[in-house]
Write a structure and sequence with these properties.
Blueprint (H helix, E strand, L loop, with lengths): L4 H24 L6 H26 L1 H31 L7 H29 L3 H18 L12 H9 L12 E4 L2 E4 L1 H25 L5 H13 L1 H7 L10 H23 L10 H42 L1
Antiparallel strand pairs: 1-2
Length: 330
């Protein structure tokens, strides 16, 4: 793709406008959003991503459109997995419900800005050092194996990263919140509130997740424009998605397995593409439509299997609960 500077500027400007409107609505009236409100926003962001992908198909062809959709669906699915950790972070810092929207909004903006830099560096690196695709492929296979190995863990754990530890050590902070403010005064001294610490935690934790997701999307498309926009559309609706499916996260019991399959598949695809590029005759190239089909089918099967498993477990629990009173009565 030959993307001109004005297209980049228009795209970034449009995304920034949407994010600013979203943030203004949150900052104007801090609250715990309703299910209806979150549903409207999530559907709106999904439709915006679909329309953008169709525009790519129309203007650049089905190949690049397929690459965008494959990348966006992969990034969006990985973002859902990230919500597990976001829930733990919110609980760890005891963020009041009415301020969680603001925390997520600013944290996601920080994550998007840092991912943009990360994508720019990655795009330049893969252009100069094609052997990186072997490394990316191996890294994704290792990540897939790690997901499968730890998929039976009872709960997600949040550990502070180096950036967060540095901020907490260097910046004077109070232990109590001051509304939605990130700064307050204590004994005449200006200090930060836990609100800033949580925002840094969300933003930097999401950047750590990008170590998995960015190599994955580079395995689906080499176009920096598609990599950036797929990440942007995946992140923009993450705040509303947090509130919409927060209660459903525990039902996606097989999500880690599905993501492991997707990451493992992309890792194999990366290695095969690199071998094919290096002239290895037996190494096939997997077409983007084939990749898109594998990703969509894997995530669909994972979701259905998760819901079936949870419903089956609930029925078993209901039968046990019905038997126990009868046994105690006898």
């Amino acid at each position: 793709m030959n993307i001109s500077g004005w297209v980049w500027l228009a795209t970034i400007g449009g995304l920034c406008t949407i994010i600013c409107i979203d943030f203004y609505l949150v900052a104007r009236k801090p609250r715990d959003p309703s299910l209806r409100e979150c549903t409207i926003w999530v559907v709106g962001y999904v439709l915006a991503a679909v329309l953008f992908g169709l525009a790519v198909v129309w203007l650049a062809g089905p190949r690049y459109g397929g690459e965008f959709f494959a990348g966006w669906i992969t990034e969006y699915s990985l973002s859902v997995d990230n919500l597990f950790v976001f829930v733990v972070i919110m609980s760890s810092f005891a963020v009041p419900k009415q301020y969680r929207q603001k925390v997520l909004s600013i944290g996601i903006v920080l994550a998007l800005a840092m991912r943009g830099l990360f994508i720019a560096i990655g795009a330049e690196a893969v252009q100069r050092f094609e052997w990186l695709f072997y490394f990316f492929g191996a890294f994704l296979l290792y990540t897939a194996w790690k997901l499968l190995r730890h998929q039976d863990s009872e709960e997600e754990e949040f550990s502070e990263n180096a950036v967060l530890r540095l901020v907490k050590r260097v910046v004077p902070a109070t232990s109590s919140y001051a509304g939605a403010s990130i700064l307050t005064r204590v004994n005449g001294r200006r200090v930060v509130t836990p609100m800033l610490i949580v925002m840094v935690a969300i933003g930097t934790t999401d950047l750590l997740f990008a170590l998995d997701s960015i190599p994955a999307i580079f395995g689906l498309t080499k176009e920096p424009f598609l990599v950036f926009t797929a990440n942007a559309f995946a992140l923009m609706g993450l705040r509303q998605l947090f509130f919409l499916i927060g209660g459903l996260l525990d039902r996606l019991v097989y999500l880690s397995i599905g993501l492991a399959v997707v990451l493992g598949f992309i890792g194999v695809k990366l290695v095969l593409d690199a071998l094919h590029h290096d002239g290895v005759s037996w190494a096939p190239r997997i077409p983007i439509l084939g990749s898109l089909a594998v990703i969509v089918c894997t995530l669909a099967v994972t979701t259905v299997a998760s819901l079936v498993k949870v419903r089956s477990d609930q029925r078993k629990e209901a039968r046990v609960a019905a038997v126990v009173p009868e046994a105690s009565g006898d």
